[in-house]
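Work package 3, deliverable 3.1, input record:
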Amino acid sequence: MPASAIRRLVPFSEAAEAQGTKVYHLNVGAPDIKSPSCAIDAIMDKCHNMHHLSYTNSAGLLQLRKDLIEKYYKKIGIDIDLSEILVTVAGSEAFATAMQIAADQGDEIIVIEPFYTNYNTFAFLNGITLKAVPTDIRDDFRIPGIEEFEKLYSPRTKAVLISNPCNPSGKLFSKEEMLQIGEFCRRHDLFLISDEVYREFCYTDEPHFSAMSIPGCEQNVILVDSVSKRYNLCGARIGCIISHNKDVMAAALKFAQSRLCPPVLGQYASIGALDTPQSYFDEVKAEYIRRRDCAVDALNKMEGVFCPRPLGAFYTVVELPVDDASSFAKWLLTEFRVDNQTVMITPAESFYKTEGVGKNHARIAYVLEVPELQKAMAILEQALKQYPGRV
Amino acid sequence: MPASAIRRLVPFSEAAEAQGTKVYHLNVGAPDIKSPSCAIDAIMDKCHNMHHLSYTNSAGLLQLRKDLIEKYYKKIGIDIDLSEILVTVAGSEAFATAMQIAADQGDEIIVIEPFYTNYNTFAFLNGITLKAVPTDIRDDFRIPGIEEFEKLYSPRTKAVLISNPCNPSGKLFSKEEMLQIGEFCRRHDLFLISDEVYREFCYTDEPHFSAMSIPGCEQNVILVDSVSKRYNLCGARIGCIISHNKDVMAAALKFAQSRLCPPVLGQYASIGALDTPQSYFDEVKAEYIRRRDCAVDALNKMEGVFCPRPLGAFYTVVELPVDDASSFAKWLLTEFRVDNQTVMITPAESFYKTEGVGKNHARIAYVLEVPELQKAMAILEQALKQYPGRV
């Protein structure tokens, strides 16, 4: 099993912090946004007079599934019934389950690079090969024509996997791109695994276009979603898997039964979170737009740096004037300090399959408040000037 | 993926309940015992003034790992350090991880039947073959001589897997049995995956003998444990995987990183639970002994029924005078009523690998209070008299 390129740096950041260095963490998507109070209150309400904390249905609490359908999915135009949704241990389990349902050992799944590095992990664990459609950072990670997908297609191809908005690039798929991918999946009878855990983190005026809305793709689409991420309750570990395909949901239920049930306290928090007012999301969105603009503007002002302006999630992939972003990221943690402070970034090479691509790319998570983010950017700018491997 | 024999009955019990029939659930190990108040209080304390619920370390909260080591494992004579424990999403994830670490696709694992049916599921998912050592219900499920293990050994054998105390039989392994299995694992350089999630549910005066205490097996043993089960917090979904083997723990960490972190609210509950006084366990133990004796005595008084008296967990496997325990279990739910009440039991055939064995066995979970359990036993006794497939 491959070691995570992201995690490989953790010992260096821990060592820096142990020495008293302040590390600005731009490396992980761990937001500091307040959780909705209705979610926390729901946990406490449930704990008052709780006799014992028992298992729930493997598919999740009936009330949570009902509330997700009525209070959330209906509102965003996704029409599903109780047999088409199953609560999972966060988006991670939903994703792992979707991949195992879609493909067997030896099968192939088409992804679009750059892609979330854990897709590699799950593919490896299940003996699945990922084939990557290339995109160009200089072209805003635009999805290429369908001929690029056709080139990768083989009889062993079982699914296309997208993340929309995308971790790591922040790319938001247009309706046209989605329809094109849907048409490809229909033509070859492939699953379309759509990871939409960042759906509520979109910075456009148009609504997010879900894979569930692609006409004629009802039997192809497996939606991977997160509840805990949406409400800044990451630690609650609640997500869901959704599909109109009855066979998919029957298989998902078998996986779910093998682990008994999703975490119950997180399910209570999620039921409470579904009463979060729209104003909460409006504020979160405005905050992330401020942070994104702060980071992207600062990055593009640095000499030799290129950064697209992402339309979703809270990440951006940036091209750096360095020989190797992994070496640079390590150097930041081990050798570089400004007033005993440094920054931690994620080298992006492992988000690409294509050999050699992404070597000078890094992922920046803009999950700090603007004043902190400004300081982190100033440190990064100085670092790029001093880094011995600058090109 | 095979459908769960246990779950296959759920639609029938739901239908019965929808018609207003009271179903005594002897089928699932979902205890009704009160959770320790210190665990529930810990959740509420954490929720007061909580800003947001963030991820934890993939290995679990440092405080939880430290407290598990100091307040629990040290007390029961298991001496481990921080690098030898990793918090998981309940015992289920600990088990799935252990199996994936121990064996690759095509490998074999030796189990002792009857065994927990989800072992089959995880083996199937990972292309692992289970080979089963037979035991005899009439001989108290005694572990046979090591020659029975040797018969199953092949160069593809990677591990021995035990559940102690055992779900489904309630069997408690003697120290001698453990030493014998340990010796076999050492000789063939096999992992010994020891599922000890029911360790605190032992009904003898001698302490439980953990696989971690087998001399010379330090590099072989992978301990699968549950925190949430121990404290009647099943829904919290917290367990752990423990090993002195550094390679095992490094691999476990990679698996853990791919799913980011264990449920955080459950981790807080677990930290609180570690302050549970011994008197709580004494009361729980006394309660389960009452329930066990109530069930076992009643079962053995029924004509044609044979039931050993288990020394651990809260299950017993019973031999019934029926043609097929699956048909009987279905008939109970669909056709049999006493005052509009019936019982639900688990047919035990799927706990066995050996063809034909266990067809007339059922697992009874004694997880109801004694008065309810007495009523359930009276219904079962009548049912056995009237069942058309009685033999």
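Chain A touches chain B through 57 residues (CB under 8 Å).
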